[in-house]
Amino acid sequence: MMRRLGVWLLRVAGGLAALLLVAFGIDWTVYVMRKSPQGSVEVSQFMSVPLKGQKTEYDLLGTADVACDVALFPHGGETPCWYLRRHATQWENVGAPAY
After folding, report:
1. 39, 68 Cβ separation under 8 angstroms
2. Cα separation of 80 and 98, whole Å?
3. Are strands 38-51 and 89-93 parallel, antiparallel or unpaired?
4. Using CA atoms, how far apart are residues 67 and 38, in angstroms rounded to an integer?
5. Domain ranges of the chain
6. Global pTM?
7. Is-contact 49 94, C-beta < 8 A?
8. 3-state SS of the chain: helix, strand, coil percent to 5?
9. 3 dihedral zone (left: phi>0; alpha: psi -120 to 50; beta)
10. Are 70 and 81 in contact (CB under 8 A)?
């Protein structure tokens, strides 16, 4: 019984890995054929600064247009635009304060 379950799980994992590989290959092919389409998303940038007494200060750094790839997966070292639209807030954490 356990052997059958292990074989079944192995087949499912192999099938999912193959499906992911095919999806990435198709996405990369379309990305190259469209000559590396680029977009930009406006992102709000914040900074959190730890203070004395276990307190934290949050500062708005402003907004910036961040370059992104118009693709399903990241290509060319940039984040996909769909991901940046869903995560339009970026945080920068500063280290612990020096007492």
Report:
1. yes
2. 37
3. parallel
4. 7
5. 1-35, 37-99
6. 0.75
7. yes
8. 40, 35, 25
9. alpha
10. yes
